[in-house]
Fold:
Amino acid sequence: MDLFDFINRSNADYIDQLYQRYQRDPRSVDAHWQAFFAGFEAGSGRPGSTPGAVAGAVAGAAGGQGQLEVEAADLVHSYRELGHTLATLDPLGHHRPSHPLLELSEFGLNLADLDRRVGHTGFLGSYDGTLRDLIEKLRTTYCGTIGVEYMDIPDKTQREWLQQRMEPILNRPHYSAEEARAILYQIVAAQTFEEFLGIKYQGQKRFSLEGAESLIPLLNAMVDDGAALGIEEIVMGMAHRGRLNVLAHVLNKPYEVIVGEFEGTALPQGHEGDGDVKYHLGYSQDRMTHGGRKIHISLSFNPSHLELVDPVVVGIVRAKQNYLGDHATRTRVAPVLVHGEAAFTGQGIVQETLSLSELPYYRTGGTIHIIVNNQVGFTTFPRQGRFTPYPTDVAKMIQAPIFHVNGDDPEAVVHVAKIAVAFRQKFHQDVMIDLWCYRKHGHNETDDATYTQPLMYRQIGEKESLREHYARRLMEQGKLTAEQFEAMKKEARERLDRAQQVAREHKPRQTMTTLGGIWKGMQRAGDWQVKTAVPAEQIRRIGEGATRVPAGFTVHPKLKRLFAHRLEMCLGKMPIDWGCAEMMALGSLVLEGTPVRFVGQDAQRGTFSHRHAALRDYNTGEKYVPLANLSDEQAPIIVVNTMLSELAVLGFEYGFSSADPRNLVIWEAQFGDFVNGAQPIIDQFITVAESKWQKYCGLVMLLPHGYEGQGPEHSNAYLERFLQLSAENNIQVCYPSLPSQYFHVLRRQMKRNFRKPLVLMMPKSLLRSPEDMPGSASQLAEFTEGGFQMVMDDPENPPRERVRRVLLCAGKVYYQLHKTRLMKKVENVAIVRVEQLYPYPQKEIQGILAKYNQAREVCWVQEEPKNRGAWTFMSDRLEPMLAETVTLTYVGREEAASPATGSYKVHQLEEQEIVAAALELRTEDARTEPPATPKEAAAKATPVSD
Structure:
């Protein structure tokens, strides 16, 4: 006890002061005192001890037996905290033999103390009272085939709950012979399935589960216990390793359909689009548990980009919970994510998804994470892919319990699964299972892993399979006979043989139910236009409700004028700007019963200070959302400021939108170029899900876009990328130039009986100061009549016989052309706006070009460089439409590696050159105002995030 010298032990006041400091903040005292106080509390069971109690314990410790009790209690605490470091987790046999902080000497003990009686230590398991037996039971509990990290959880109730489920049974549950044989049969079925496919379909990828077969009983135990604990639906996400096995043995996808996919005979029923490989496909099924309860299980479709599905699944779950009214505990629908260990550490979207788990409007009541720890990622050893002992170390940021378990002990695996699902249901938080196993083959079955891991794969090749290992263990326990084992293997193989015969003879198909359930009533895309106008009386009602605040609520002084103007706009007394048009669109939808979910990093105020959807009391900071208080009968609306993430947040919103078509779901990028951070979700889900998986969504993406001298980063929302991704009517790409157009396109999104993703190139400067651009505001009649116009003819209505050049453009550049044309009185040019770029409005463009049949030139004008923007997309479609006498030309910036110049003066000159070339003026004649001074340029500049 050199840590506590005689002077300190005899100074009760000093020790009590230390203990009081420890209670306020454990980090405020020396590490040795931290360990002592923690051990004292664990042993005494009284964390709030009275003054003098701790000093008394120290004094008792100095006397001998009391000291041993304190040291034993400290030992218990240390095993709870560090026992996992000595656990026998690796099926390949590589274990850590000792840990210096668990050596007897660390607690002032030696071998002579082992047979001394230690009294009460706080350990909940039974032992004979000696230090020797206590250590043996602690090692059985925390250093066996289960290692647990939970002592850093700040919630004492959660720690004690976990201890109650582990320590009394020493983390070794007892399974009857029947239960053990049921676990074995699942392993037999899983391994036989892989062997059958490997023999019958050599050379075909299947991403075998061999080496990790215990994943099957793990998931099935979770399903059965989850149903008993109130889970009605599980939504799963996983990459391709073991996916076919999970589909077969957890979701009960028929063998004959899976075998038919290998045979090449099982195209999905009603097959449309391009489809996907078999190990990316999803499936859903109602299943009856052993307890007689029905539970719905679905496995989400997943692309090859391993962890992208994570936020998609939790978004789907959140939508389903909302639909079921499961708001309080969120226990009826649960997400389960199966990860690879290398991807869990390496893919940033994992950490982003974990960060969402406890945020308002993103909570799902906890995700159960299962890491299939193959101990190798493709060809990379863990020590090359991470610097931490476990792949789950990144999850410590959310302070979830982490169970490490040896996959070669399926009974321990099932035990952990049961604890995990019970924890999730009780505490509504994430939980981690790190399933230590190995990968029998390479990354796929055609990959030779001995090139990169020769020693590891030599050991794997010599290793007894889990099926044989567990069967032998049960035989030794008298729970299984050799005849029973052989019967299991025979039955599993015969089922597969029969399935192959059925697949070849009847060619069964997987039924794709795409418009069932909550999607019932939705259809595939039909008429793209729909009535979206709103009566003036309803707009007046929205204006009055959205500008009204509760009694005693103090509006920010600068917003009083804004809200007064918005009310006048809604009454038709002022032209309507973008912020008001959006307010009217959202307000009209919620009054008509459409829920709205509007998210973005600054969505409440709006990056450009134009929205102010959530008000803050100027004196108290209290929040008030006017659009959520229009009527007692309205649908809900939430406007959420998200965390600084694009990838996971957009994935979540895609999942939410795909799960419930009744909601208008909007994601807004702070600036359009921020969409770069979410591009994989766009590429692998949003634009392709309908073609690959027959999955639909109506997600709206608002991407501020426009060239205003703000440099390369905040100019371009990469319009060209979305147009390159456009095909087979998969998405909508629109570039509205008027507030009324924005109003109608939002309403159109929800008023049709089908759903398509909508990409909106949004303005920036127009959001703040439409008065700088004549004609950029809308009149009330544009909202109460008509609808979204895919192409807008020239409002100046130039004499058609005099028009020699037709300018086609999209977005803000129209106003620069229009303003200069009015000033310079250019009369032989018509300026036409293409508001919907995709699906391409060919009929509408043809109609307008036919009107100007005297024109000899059609010119596409854009702000973006020639290799960006819409030019390439439009030229391919315009050229075939034009008569031989009409020339198609381009006006815009030259090709450039960077999206935009970093110089405001260069930007101004480029803008003038574009306008001059389009209107056939000299560059100096295209200037509509004196060159801006640096101070004026700064005043006009839109805010930037960096």
Q: What stands out?
A: Residues 1-10, 59-63, 941-945 have pLDDT under 50 and may be disordered. The longest helix spans residues 482-506. The longest strand covers residues 857-865. The chain has four domains: 6-146, 177-512, 536-770+778-784, 791-940.
